[in-house]
Amino acid sequence: MFDYIIVGGGSAGGVLANRLSENVNNKVCLIEAGSADSSVFVSTPGAFGAHMYMRKFNWGFNSQPDDGTNSRGQFCPRGKGLGGSSSINAMVYTRGHSSDYDHWAALGNPGWGFKDVLPLFKKSEDNENGANEYHGEGGLLSVSSVDRNYYKLEDMFITAAQEAGVPFRNEFNSDELEGIGNYQFTIKNGQRAGVRKCYIEASQKSERRLNAL
Description:
With about 210 residues, this protein is an alpha/beta fold. It folds into two domains: about 1-65 and about 75-90 and about 195-213, no CATH class; about 90-185, Orthogonal Bundle (Arc Repressor Mutant). The chain is about 25% helix and about 15% strand. The chain has helices spanning about 10-20, 40-45, 100-105, 115-125, 150-165, 195-205; strands at about 5, 25-30, 60, 75, 125, 140-145, 185, 185-190, 190, 210. The protein starts with a strand and ends with a strand.
């Protein structure tokens, strides 16, 4: 007997299961159709892309033909397994443009403006650079920077873009995103830090009563 049954163990379902199981009196069941296998293709950042066509980890959906795509369908990779698409994405940590959130709020969705959701993003985050106006630390989602010494070609590209007039950005999760710079990633200790590892497995290793099926 469970108090809560969550259907879908993807990014949203995994976070919800973690939050509900914070109350140790709650018995939570998380149901996922995909695999529970923690494959090296998922955990290793360098293996990104290998699972794009591996049906074990990817539902491999296709969109309907659309006028904007010259009447063609588009391949839409979606994560299959615990952690959902956070297990197959590129691990780039970007939240989207602030104007999108403000637009949602303006459409009649109070509480969805950028300033409204920013505290929640910061709460979820454990940024290796520490907390500031746009980032948090101590949360469950690990966010890290890449050692720039390994990417000389990238530095040359950034320099060339600046010479062409493109502004440099140190931050891609603020009010302003237009420009060029270096992203941060959801990677910790050389491994993918997705919802499976940061939220689902963290709950299962504690005293909480979370079952994943």
